[in-house]
Amino acid sequence: MTFQIDSGIDLPGQELGLVSKMPAVENNGKVSRDDRKTVGDITHADPRMTCRDVHVWYGDKHALNDVDLDIGKNEVIAMIGPSGCGKSTFIRCLNRMNDSIDGCRVSGDLIMDGQDIYDRKMDVVLLRAMVGMVFQKPNPFPKSIFENVAYGPRIHGLAAAKTDIEEIVVTSLQKAGLWDEVKDYLDQPGTGLSGGQQQRLCIARAIAVNPEVVLMDEPCSALDPIATARIEELIDELREHYTIAIVTHSMQQAARVSQRTAYFHLGDLIEVGETDQIFTNPKHQLTEDYITGRFG
Amino acid sequence: MSTTALIFTLVLLAGFSFWLGRKRSFAVVNGDAWKLHSLPNYYGYYTAIWCGIPALMITAMWLFFENTIITHLVVVDLPEEIRSLSPDRLNLVVNDIRNLVSGNIVSSDVDPAMRAAADHYIHLQAISQAALTVLVLAIAISGALLALRAIRQEKRARNAVERIVMIFLLASSTIAIFTTLGIVLSVLFEAIRFFETVPLTSFLFGLEWSPQMAIREDQVGSSGAFGAIPLFAGTLLISFIAMLVAVPIGLLSAIYLAEYASKRVRAMAKPLLEILAGIPTVVYGFFAALTVAPFIRDSGGLLGLDVSSESALAAGLVMGIMIIPFVSSLSDDVINAVPQAMRDGSEGLGATKSETIKKVIIPAALPGIVGGILLAVSRAIGETMIVVMAAGLSANLTANPLEAVTTVTVQIVTLLVGDQEFDSPKTLAAFALGLLLFVVTLILNIIALHVVRKYREQYE
């Protein structure tokens, strides 16, 4: 592996004059562990959301430190990193789910459609309709399968007639790959499904309000390998219509489903790049440590 | 030795045998406590238990049967003409003998036979006391000696003590259960005596309540009617008004406390709300009778309504206030028990806080809330002091909250307060009412517990 300093590393914002000096370099050509500046290209040719200088504090704890990242249209971007590194915190900023946490403070620019989502004028309700979320543990409401999916469209008034609602429910369940399994049991409680089915129900519930971005916070960590494979397939299919940001602890999963990968470490965004490049040839020593299993 | 002194001696003996047992455990291993199966104290407890418990049990049993046996022996030795009296009269004689023994006033002149019987009684008591003392001390000492002899290096004293602790706990819970059973049975038997004079159907379905019985044949206007319907109608009317106050206020304040209030507000408001539960009901009672009832009567007068000064409304309103903490505290708990994931899921879809509460939290918590409300209802039905002071005594069968009604509990109180003869249906009616009230609240509690248990299975 050859490495040349002047052509090998794309530093973020280098051309904008944001980076003043070259990073320290290890013997093997990787950026040193002590350097916490983001390595790789944080930009995307066709961004859906643009984040700059994002800081998050939980009380006195500085949970996320100066993150710059673009989320591209119709891409799957994976956030990886050891526990407590800030990856969940970051995607929860994207639909302001952190608002309900006591003592959480967010600063920086998070732009979607030319508007700062933390702006006073921003309507959180509309933002969350555009940026949906799927959680770590499947959390269907204790209602019927039909009502679970119909919940979002109903509160946003997306359907006037009963038939419209039915149509939305059917297409959402079809998109989530759950239709064939549940079409005869729509009035059964959603909590009665298996773990993998519950998670696909939650995905159907999220896409029923027709969001543009879907955030997934470790969506497979509570599932068995078969259900996981099913969800990964689904994520790949959903990419056609949606932008997906997924947090995962499984590096194989990140490698399988994502186009770009971002590696977080102790609140810093360490490295961003094409998924192939991150997993075969990381540019930062910390990234290499993590993906080779030296820690994490 | 008197019984008190005997028990005191037993306690001392047990304490002494604790010390002996502990010492003995050291002795069997030559002072090396590490070699013992259990800690030395356990050998002490073991010895003390063997010394104290059997002896105490024998004492209790002896005292329980002593009176009956001695009385029997005395009666057997009474002259023939007294023994052949009817059981009731014989009882009076025995009572006189006992009074004579304890130096109380007796009902008739003391004749020599009675005097002899009393002496005989005293003599038997003395023998019994002496026998008890000897027997119990012997059992205590031999128990301790046996336990001491059983102490070996590998003796599992710890497990033995553990088993006795378990039996002790079992006995404690049995006492609670048997007490309940005893209360139910005593009420049941008196109620059965009542139903011997008043038919069950006329009690359950009768529309008139006027429990005055004629003592003499020629007394006027005291036929006695024991229809429980007006009482239960009054109880239900007042409870209904109370729930009308308590459920909305309690539920809404629970939602505020659980979902909206900041930690500081919650820490202050919740204890303040629960102070309501700490106010004695008698205080609520005179608040209802002296403040609320006149206020309602006066404001009703301004509106041209005819309000009784002991209206169901006043009692119901105040009872509702009293029950608020029940509803709010239980609802607060079940709302908090709804997993955070439900809130996240709903808010992640763009629902507002009130939509989330209305459509997800409350439906999910509903079984628990219903359980809490049912418990509050049974509390309202059984509540006595407020209605005694603020509701009336006249058994009107009405649904108008501005009129005076009476409740089951009020009638039970009025039937039993003061000197009462226990062979008239008037007094026994109280037990029938109590039994019916018990059955109603029991059914409500069973439903409530069932609903709450079903709720627990909802998640996972």
Largest sheet of chain B: 2 strands, antiparallel
Write the H/E string of chain A, N to C. HEEEHEEHEHHHHEHEHEEHH
What fraction of residues of chain B sit in β-strands?
Answer: under 5%
CATH level 1 class label of chain A: Alpha Beta
* Largest protein-protein interface: A-B, 28 and 21 residues
Beta-strand content estimate of chain A = 15-25%
CATH class of the largest domain in chain B: Mainly Alpha
Number of helices of chain A: 11
Return the average pLDDT of chain A rounded to an integer.
Answer: 86
CATH superfamily of the largest domain in chain B: MetI-like
Verbal overview:
The complex is a heterodimer of chains A (296) and B (460). Chain A is of the alpha/beta class. Chain A has one domain: Rossmann fold (3-Layer(aba) Sandwich), CATH 3.40.50.300. Chain A is built from eleven helices and ten strands. Chain A has a six-stranded mixed β-sheet with strand order 6-7-8-3-9-10, sandwiched between helices. In chain A, β1 and β2 form a beta hairpin. Chain A is globular. The N terminus of chain A is likely disordered. Chain B has 460 residues and is mainly α. Chain B has two domains: 153 residues, no CATH class; 232 residues, Orthogonal Bundle (MetI-like fold), CATH 1.10.3720. A two-stranded antiparallel sheet of chain B has the order 1-2. In chain B, α2 runs parallel beside α6. The radius of gyration of chain B is 32 Å and the shape is flat. Classes of the chains: A alpha/beta (296), B mainly alpha (460). At the A-B interface, α3, α4 and α7 of A face α12 and α13 of B.
